[in-house]
Amino acid sequence: MLKRIAIMLVCFGFVLAGCAGTQSPQKFSKPSDHPPKFAAGTTMAALQTAKNIRIGVKFDQPNLGYMSPGAKVPSGFDIEIAKIIAAHLGLDAGQITWVKTDSADREKYLTGNTVDIVVASYSMTPQRQSVVGQAGPYLVTGQQIMVRKDDADIDTAQDLKDRKVCTVAGSSSTELIVKKFHADPWPSDSYAKCVDALLDGEVEAVSTDGAVLMGFLINHVDEVKIVGEPFTTERYGIGYKHGDKAMCEFLTKTLLASYKDGTWSSAFETTLGKTGVEAPTPAQPDKCQS
């Protein structure tokens, strides 16, 4: 059952990406013995000189960005993408400062210089790109619905009318389910709390990107299920400071290199692909704007 749902999420949830054959796992990128050289005055040169990069990530999304109890370093697909970026700066994982970044904090942390970049299931939207830069997409997914395993009343988004649905403040998921599907929103500050509320019967559903829900499904396969097909397209991008075209070009080049050398596929297979689903074909990043 888990594999069937997970395949649905990959082959339908990652709607623009398509599905590719499984590749042999490869090691994630590690800093070269000959670090790349960047032009003086660029963000990349400053980070390399500082020998540190502050990366905003989620701590509450299993297999995407998650800090396990007692752990000192988060894990998940977004975390591995962040490590690949650091490696292309000539930095190793020990030179990353992981900053817990909730959905509502992403723009604020970038504009306020709390973080250098954000890799946190960060859907690319025109509204966000008026405030911060977003390079990518590096993953394409779509909004879906999670309900309790014994729920026979909610099968599609149209069934959400007047039902209590948990979403996270600051995410792109809330507005759609309220305006289009007339759900009764139950806002939370984390998806983990949303899932707990679902299991406790406080809400009838949780709605967010399929990639996020898939991470929770792996941990609660006997208690919850994902219903319906995706009803949006969500393109995950890497957040950076607005107007920094050189950083955008570096991030885009890094993503393309990870697609070619297999590190992107390895990152997916060891995180979101742990159920045995195939890694989707990575989406082509957008062209950087001036």
From TrEMBL:
Keyword terms, alphabetized: Signal, Transport
GO cellular component: extracellular region; outer membrane-bounded periplasmic space
GO terms for biological process, alphabetical: amino acid transport
The Solute-binding protein family 3/N-terminal domain, residue ranges: 52-275
Signal peptide: 1-20
Pfam families from the UniProt entry: SBP_bac_3
Entry-linked InterPro entries: Bact_solute-bind_prot3, Solute-binding_3/MltF_N
Similarity field: Belongs to the bacterial solute-binding protein 3 family.
Protein name: Amino acid ABC transporter substrate-binding protein (PAAT family)
